[in-house]
Design goal:
By secondary structure, the protein is α/β, with parallel strands linked by helices. 31% of the residues lie in helices and 21% in strands. It has one domain: Vaccinia Virus protein VP39 (Rossmann fold, 3-Layer(aba) Sandwich). Strands 3-2-1-4-5-7-6 form a seven-stranded mixed beta sheet, with helices on both faces. Helix 6 crosses helix 7. The longest helix has 13 residues. The radius of gyration is 16 Å and the shape is globular. The chain binds S-adenosylmethionine (SAM). The site of S-adenosylmethionine has 22 residues, from helix 1 and strand 2. S-adenosylmethionine (SAM) binds next to helix 1 and strand 2.
Amino acid sequence: MTQNEDKPDRTDRIKWHYAHRVHPDRAHFDILDWAAPETQQLRFEILTKNVALRGQSLLDVGCGLGDLVTYLEKQNVSVDYTGVDVVEQMVERAEHLHPSRRFECADIFNNPAALDGEKFDVVFCSGAMNLDLGNNLEFAKVALPAMLSHTRGTLAVNMLHARIPAGEPQYFAYNPDYILSILKPLCSEVQLLDDYLVNDFTVIAKI
Ligand SMILES: C[S@@+](CC[C@H](N)C(=O)[O-])C[C@H]1O[C@@H](n2cnc3c(N)ncnc32)[C@H](O)[C@@H]1O
C-alpha cells in the first residue's frame, strides 16, 4: 500500500507518515523528514529571533523529538516549555531525551479540549502543517484558530511556500496571502517573514 493509495483520516495519515521513522540511531532531521539539519535549525532561528521568549510559557505544536528545547538551551533562552505531538513514538522519544520537560500526546487541531484549553504566552509551530492531508486549505482554517486559542500573546508558525512546488506529493505548499487572510481578522498584528528559505515562510501573529 502506498501513501497515495491509502486515504486514512488526518491523524492516522500523520501517524502513518512519521511513526515508523522514529528510531534512536536515525538522525533527527531525517526522522522529522526535514531536508537537512541546517534548514530545521534555520526555522528555529527565525521563530526565536522574532518573538520575545525569555521567561515565557511556550507551547511547541508538532514538537517532534523536542529539538527546539535543545536549540533554546544552546542559546541560553529559558522558557517554560510544553511540547505537543500527535505521534506517540515522537513524544516517548522526546520525553526520553528531555526528561525534565513537559510533553503531551494530542492533536490540538482536532480536539479543542486538548491540553484542557490551557493558554501559553507563545505558541510555535514548525513544520506541523506541511503534510498533504487532501484538504489543507480547509485544514488551515481550523488549525490556525485552534493554535490561536492556546495563546494569550503570540503565534509563530511556518509552512512550505507555494512559490516552490512542494516537490514530493506527500507535502503541501501554501500561499502566504491565503494564510494571512485567515489570521488577520483574528489578530491585532500579523507579520510575514519570507526571505530566509526559498521554500518556506513564517507568520508571526499577535492576539
Ligand atoms: C516536520 S516535523 C517537525 C518537528 C519539530 N517541530 C521540529 O522542527 O523539530 C512535524 C511534526 O509535527 C507533528 N504533527 C503533525 N501534525 C500534527 C498534529 N495535528 N498535532 C500534533 N503534532 C502534529 C508530526 O508528528 C511531526 O512530529
